Amino acid sequence: MLDVIEREALVANARASGEHLRAGLVRLASRYPWVGEVRGAGLFVGVEVGAHPASKLTGRQEAARIVNDLKRRGVLVGTTGRGTDVLKIRPPLTIELAEVDFLIDALDQSLAAG
Predict the structure, then answer these.
(1) How far is CA 20 from the centre of its chain?
(2) Topology of 2-113 in CATH?
(3) Which residues, including other chains, have CB under 8 Å from residue 40's CB and lie 6 or more apart?
(4) Per-residue pLDDT tens for 81-101?
(5) Which residues of the chain form beta strands (DSSP E)?
(6) Which pLDDT value is given to residue 13?
(7) For residue 2, what pLDDT is reported?
(8) C-alpha closest to that of 106 among 93, 87, 86
(9) Exposed, middle or buried, 82 (CB in 10 Å: 0-12/13-18/19+)?
(10) CA angle 69-74-80, nearest 5°?
(11) What is the mean pLDDT of residues 48-77?
(12) Which of 6, 13, 49, 63 has the fewest CB within 10 Å, making it most exposed?
């Protein structure tokens, strides 16, 4: 396992993909006021979801809606946090930048659909 991680430069890939992912998520958070803090390290990222101003969904309800909508779009994320209002994004170490872009685009569409 360690040989594969080293041979395929998965640590470097996780660093680069994680930076690209967080940058995209921060851009989305700046466009959608109910999306809060983006935090994490490498490819383990959390996105805080607040109450949606138009739908009146709570942060927990909005996070659940987003998780279900992303699943329909082919992206699997979960929720975590005390209020179950944080999107938990944990893609595999092998994720490529194009796949990160797919995730960001799917989340953008999901947020816009809310």
Answers:
(1) 11
(2) Aspartate Aminotransferase, domain 1 (3.90.1150)
(3) 18, 22, 46, 89
(4) 999 999 999 999 999 999 999
(5) 35-41, 44-49, 78-80, 86-89
(6) 92
(7) 87
(8) 87
(9) exposed
(10) 60
(11) 96
(12) 6
